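CO-FOLDING WORKSHEET

Operator: S.A.
Ligand of interest: zinc ion
Run index: 319
Mode: holo prediction, single chain
Checklist:
[x] sequence pasted
[x] SMILES validated
[ ] output reviewed
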Amino acid sequence: MFSYDKGIKLNSSSLWLDAGSRVEACVVSHAHLDHAKKHSLMIATDKTIRILDKRIGKTRSIGLDFGEPYDFDGLNVTLLPAGHILGSAQILVQANGSRLLYSGDFNVQQSATAEAIEIPESDILIMESTFGQPAYSFPDRQQVSEMLCNFVAQAFRVGATPVVAGYALGKSQEAMKILGDAGYKLSVHGSVAVLARIYEEFGIRFGDWEKYKRKETDGKVLIIPRIAIRSRMVKRLLHKRIVFLSGWAVNSSTKYRYGVDEAIPLSDHADFDGLLEYVRKVNPKKIYTTHGFREFPLHLQRLGFDAEPLQKSKQLSLF
Ligand SMILES: [Zn+2]
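OUTPUT RECEIVED:
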């Protein structure tokens, strides 16, 4: 059995998956703070643990390699790459011959900074479905990278400072990698820089970059977290062009909502077709969806899958 209440509780043990508040023992899929809290014991990839040490402070932890099985209270837990951000994992739990796969946040497209996803088969699938509507169809990564590089080149052509905004963890490092590899010099907001240093510890190289210094931004691309779009740091630039990176860029209203010049659909989540590709590969007997549109499980039902939204506190039989 498992139950859902801001996280997945595996009822045959004391173990949680991505619990939304502090618990005794929890497997954490990745280091975004809507999935990770400071638990008494955290089981995660070494990369996720390292990032969370920095973000929320050290806690007792067990670091697993991808594919390394770990036994806890009679459950067998394995982490598999999710393709979302550095160190992000899907969580596969096996017991009594049954398999439960918890997707965490995932992306089927290969990113520049996250490990390529490996999709296992499973009897039961609990999956995020953030972009679970057909309108959310993203261009391939190569095209999106070109859109970003073109935006930056165009800004420099008109004498403006290009400002690239996205989530501080994951999206911003992805932008740094794309633009650094393209040869641009980068000036990076402190909250992004501290996480980029951790990416570097794990072998990711971003080219020519430095932490933001107020009077040293000429000829550089500014990389900022989304929350800094209206900061003094950005306001004091006289001539600038701001781009916001998000899958929500597919909505034409996104750039107005965030008050930016452009929005580009660089996403660390799967788009609608990516979600369906994922489901077909997992080939589950039962699907529970989280984080998404209510229509998505209906789409899956029309395709012949047994799917429903995961509901709070519902007791679900598994093991
Ligand atoms: Zn995430």
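REVIEW:
The chain has two domains: 2-135+269-316, 141-264.
The domain at 141-264 is CATH 3.40.50 (Rossmann fold).
[x] output reviewed
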